[in-house]
Design goal:
Oligomer: heterodimer
Number of domains of chain B: 1
Bound molecules: FE2/S2 (inorganic) cluster
Radius of gyration of chain B: 16 Å
Largest sheet of chain A: 8 strands, parallel
Largest sheet of chain B: 6 strands, antiparallel
Shape of chain B: elongated
Strand content of chain B: over 45%
Order of helices and strands of chain A: EHHEHHHHEHEHEHEHHEHHEHHEHH
Largest interface: A-B, 25 and 28 residues
Distance between the termini of chain A: 23 Å
Order of helices and strands of chain B: EEEEEEEEE
Radius of gyration of chain A: 21 Å
Number of strands of chain A: 9
């Protein structure tokens, strides 16, 4: 028996105790699980991260943006209105900042390892949180300086502590030359398994300035992920009066726009070995867009002259991360979605922990229409092949 | 039917929860407005510790004569147990999931005698 008093030290291991029960019940120690999208809060370490920003002007701006004496938080990154914690109902949000790390370990590494151990995850690809909005910064030089500072901080300070934690580094996509330089400089750093573009941004991804970036990624065999987010200030979504609406539409919306530009402009034809991934928009939008684009392509073929097959055929070659996976009452809809996007080979599990709509591996493992091998592929093997990850030294839990 | 002593009413003051095992099921016992409840501590969504979540009044919308929304209010007569993992809401005392009434969080009868709290299994 135990008493929960609402007091005491916040601890990921307590918050996720039920996840560990599931991991043991389902035997996750029998096979590797890769979480391709989990988060840390880089703003909790902002003073430390600031020390890795090379540009002296932006570093000074960053230093002065931190609340005095706290070492955390910054006003240098655009923020969104909204209530991720559903008005206090999702309680871990209010606790996070006070959780302490283990002695002798970076706090972020401690917290990430705790969640991995509770969920039974063997590799995690970690992404920042407030920086998901950095693409909205009106100064490309600030985005560039922070992206490089973050890349240095991650590869020099955080990732060397634990080889089970990887990252796809944030690309400063508003400055294509800076994005290319970041790929060139950080591709071979240990722990870097690819690169990521935050989807809320407004420079079209087929702009010719990006071709060297795609070429560099293709040459290195490193995946490029578009990570969904929402922007309530988007002209079209300004009329939505609830976070649920802005969030539900926003996350797939920007990924749909980028995917459409990539496909219709023949980027997969120009860079056939470029591995593209779309993250955190759920999956239901994929068959929707496949159907829309295929139908229109039949009538307007001349507008997409680089294509040699239907748009859906390219989309089936992209990778998709699972979370936040929709769970329709009629599971045959989800089954069909899996078929459409070639889930057995192209779908990769993501938790998005600790964000409010995180998923446990059970969302895949408990699906009645998947055989054991497909479950294991989606939960781990697909990502291990895509990111070239070695067999984990030990399997959790 | 068996009564299992789980603690005293004092243990359940200030919103405290008692997490106990009843026939192998983890159960959360708590008190709200003088009534006692015991629910399975595994959410029907992804298995979160629902019984450790917040107790929140239901949010209601008040319509005017022209069916325009006049305001939103808390209805303090209807309390929801909210799962701390993702926010699924269950109505007290039934344990019905508010967003899908077909779903119901398993509950247990609670008896209080002379300051002692028992869960009936
Ligand atoms: S596990 Fe309870 S809301 Fe998700």
């Amino acid at each position: 028996m135990r008493t929960v008093t609402g007091q005491g030290e916040p601890d990921t291991r307590k918050i996720l105790a039920n996840a560990r029960v599931q991991a043991v019940e389902r035997g996750y120690s029998e096979f590797p699980i890769v979480d391709v999208d989990a988060h840390h809060y880089e703003n909790d370490s902002w003073a430390e991260l600031t020390g890795y920003i090379d540009d002296p002007i932006v570093r000074q701006l960053s230093e002065s943006s931190i609340a005095k004496g706290s070492g955390r938080g910054t006003t240098l990154i655009p923020s969104q209105v909204g209530n991720q914690d559903v008005g206090g109902r999702i309680q871990r949000y209010g606790l996070r900042q006070d959780e302490k790390g283990d002695e002798g370990r970076h706090r972020d590494v401690s917290l990430i390892r705790r969640s991995m151990e509770m969920m039974g995850i063997d590799y995690t690809i970690v992404f920042p949180t407030p920086m998901l909005n950095l693409g909205l910064h009106p100064q490309p030089e600030v985005e560039k300086a922070i992206a490089r500072g973050y890349a240095r901080w991650m590869t020099e300070r955080v990732l060397p502590e634990d080889t089970s934690i990887k990252t796809m580094l944030y690309l400063p996509f508003n400055d294509p030359e800076a994005a290319l330089k970041l790929v060139e400089d950080f591709s071979s750093k240990p722990g870097v398994v690819g690169f990521m573009v935050t989807s809320v941004r407004y420079r079209p991804v087929h702009d010719k300035a990006y071709m060297p970036v795609y070429a560099a990624l293709e040459e290195r065999g490193l995946p490029l992920a578009f990570h969904g987010a929402h922007n309530w200030y988007e002209r079209a979504t300004e009329q939505l009066n609830r976070f649920i609406s802005a969030h539900a539409l926003g996350f797939p919306l920007y990924n749909m726009i980028h995917l459409m530009n990539l496909v219709i402009n023949g980027i997969p034809e120009r860079f056939p070995k470029l591995k593209l991934m779309f993250m955190e928009g759920g999956l239901a939008w994929v068959p929707f867009l496949m159907q829309r684009l295929d139908s229109e392509y039949m009538m307007r073929t001349s507008e997409a002259p680089l294509l040699t097959k239907k748009p859906s055929a390219y989309m089936r070659e992209f990778y998709y991360s699972t979370q936040p996976m929709e769970r329709p009452d009629d599971l045959s809809i989800l089954e069909k979605t899996f078929e459409q996007l070639d889930a057995r080979n192209r779908l990769v599990f993501s938790s998005d922990y600790p964000h409010w709509d995180f998923d446990l591996p059970g969302v895949i493992y408990d699906l009645p229409f998947l055989d054991e091998d497909s479950k294991r592929r989606i939960l781990g093997r697909n990502a291990m092949e895509l990111f070239n990850l070695p067999e984990p030294k030990e399997l959790l839990p | 039917m068996q009564e299992q002593l789980v603690g005293s009413v004092d243990d359940l003051k200030s919103g405290n929860r008692l997490i106990v095992s009843i026939n192998g099921t983890e159960v959360s016992v708590f008190q709200s407005s003088g009534r006692y409840f015991a629910f399975q501590n595994r959410c029907l969504h992804q298995g979160g510790p629902v019984g450790e979540g917040a107790l929140m009044p239901k949010v209601t919308a008040v319509l005017g004569r022209g069916r325009e929304v006049l305001e939103e209010r808390f209805d303090d007569n209807i309390v929801h147990l909210v799962c701390p993992w993702h926010g699924w809401e269950y109505e007290l005392p039934s344990g019905e999931c508010v967003a899908d009434r077909r779903l119901r969080l398993p509950s247990f009868e609670v008896r209080v005698k002379e300051g002692k709290v028992y869960v009936v299994s």
